[in-house]
Design a protein that fits this description.
By secondary structure, the chain is an alpha+beta fold. It has seven helices and twelve strands. The strands form three sheets. Strands 5-3-2-12-11-9-8-6 form an eight-stranded mixed beta sheet. Strands 1-4 form a two-stranded antiparallel ribbon. The protein has a two-stranded antiparallel sheet with strand order 7-10.
Amino acid sequence: MKPDASLLEPIPRSKGRASIGWIEPVPFNGKDCWNAYEFSFLDERGVPEVAILRIEYSSDSPYLIESKSLKIYLNSYAMCTFKDVHGAISQIIRDLSAHLRAEVDINAKDARRFSNMFTVTDTFSFIDDLENLEVNSYEYSPELLKATESKESEYFLYSNLLKSNCPLTGQPDWASIYLYIEPDKYSIDSASLLNYIVSYRTHQEFHEECCERILYDIVEVINPQKIAVLCKYTRRGGIDINPLRLFPRDFTIAQLPDDFKQLIYTRDFRQ
């Protein structure tokens, strides 16, 4: 038996970006990071092997992969035989690269190593418990975002209240969102940011597109020198998706503060 690459469903990024307002070539960079918890195959003795796969590819890829199709595709490995996990990963890389038209990086972790990788948020300002906050909108409302005069050279914010919905199934997608901002003249008002995040509650869009829309709206309001947006979505169907976007385009992962950089490879409480 062989894995079935025809199960993968690529989706053009250009359509979602056009609806947001981004013009190609986009002025940001980033990557999509997926953790697949339900991967298994048979070794040459017929014994099942299991692994947690870390899948990464650039946000410059012309396509993204629809998550349910990836789950079904990975499940097609369950009765396939490979010499070892490296052989299985090589096949996945070939198939995903062909559909994404981009390079794909995959590594496997065992459960013991992965279980110790939890997020530390000590340096982040948690905005979910702001006092005297009133929420009035549960429909996407970018006009809720407000700027304040900048008082800091850099700051970190996070919230656990991001919830959007799959545009194909209508199923809820829950996430924590992390922001690192180096402001110019203006910073983002925390209360307005929280109201804006909550306004995604009935919004239907793919994880990656929500992340890029949030980036777009914040850049429009405060025009920061630098900003990183990371959305860490809850595991659904055995897979969690963690899109990372950095603006401007020459702002790289290597330039991120260590406190933010560690988020990319750790697990959140819902994951």
